[in-house]
Each structure stands twice: as structure tokens, then as C-alpha cells.
Design brief:
This protein has 6 helices and no strands. By secondary structure, the chain is mainly α. It has one domain. This is DoxX family membrane protein.
């Protein structure tokens, strides 16, 4: 492999790492918010789900924290990114509920609620791209 190719590969790897770590920070921050300020999340839990909205808020927060950790670690990044794609798709019904509930709110709040809907697609695409570009975990030596 030529030196230029190795440099390009390293640069692409660093860019993929930065992107994955950005995703991990975002997921970790949102996961923490589920525990620090749960009320807004409780409000967007679809009524069709059984049990308490707070239980779903905490469960989804824990899922976001776990996925953030998996994405942050190179060894589990591929699986974590696939889990992130699933998580981003799974929370879409909550975004729909928020958009419906906020349809009579002031325009800036409606824009936030409606803007979240089409943003789920690039979020899923980002997670899938992260999974595709994750470098294979190094083999662990056997004792």
C-alpha cells in the first residue's frame, strides 16, 4: 500500500471515529436528560404503550446511555451503531405524538416538533453509515 493510501485510510478512520464519538456524546446527553429532566419525555410517550410513561422515559434513557457507550467503544461500535439506528426508528412514534400535541403551540415550538420528524431519516442513515465504517475490533489474544 502506498504512503498516500495509508494517509487517506488513517484520515478517513479518524473522521469516522470523530463522527461516532459525536453520535455517542449526543446519545449520552439525551439519555442523561431522560433522568435529569424526565417530564418532557413523559409527555411524548404514546398512550398506547402499557405502563407508566415515566417507566418508558427511564427505559429509553437507559437504552440511549447503553447505545452511547457501545458506539463510543471501537470494539462494540458496529453493533452499537446498528442499535442506534433501531433506537432512532423506535422513538419515531414519540416524535409523531409530540408533533400532534404541539400543533396548536406557538410557531417556533411547532417548528421544533415538526422539524424532528424528517430529521429521523438522516439520524438513521448516520447510524447505519457509522456501522458500515466501523473498523473491525482487534482480535484478542488467547491466554
Amino acid at each position: 500500500m502506498a504512503a498516500a493510501d495509508r494517509t487517506t485510510d488513517r484520515s478517513a478512520g479518524r473522521s469516522a471515529d470523530r463522527s461516532a464519538l459525536t453520535m455517542a456524546r449526543m446519545l449520552g446527553g439525551m439519555g442523561a436528560l431522560h433522568f435529569l429532566a424526565p417530564k418532557p419525555f413523559d409527555a411524548i410517550v404514546p398512550r398506547a404503550l402499557p405502563g407508566s410513561p415515566r417507566t418508558w422515559t427511564y427505559a429509553s434513557g437507559a437504552a440511549e446511555l447503553a447505545v452511547a457507550a457501545a458506539v463510543a467503544l471501537p470494539r462494540t461500535r458496529r453493533a452499537g451503531a446498528l442499535a442506534a439506528a433501531g433506537l432512532f426508528a423506535a422513538v419515531f412514534p414519540a416524535n409523531i405524538k409530540m408533533a400532534r400535541d404541539w400543533r396548536h403551540r406557538p410557531a417556533p415550538l411547532r417548528a421544533i416538533a415538526y422539524g424532528r420528524l424528517p430529521l429521523q431519516l438522516p439520524m438513521v442513515a448516520w447510524a447505519l453509515h457509522t456501522a458500515r465504517t466501523a473498523r473491525p475490533a482487534p482480535a484478542t489474544p488467547r491466554p
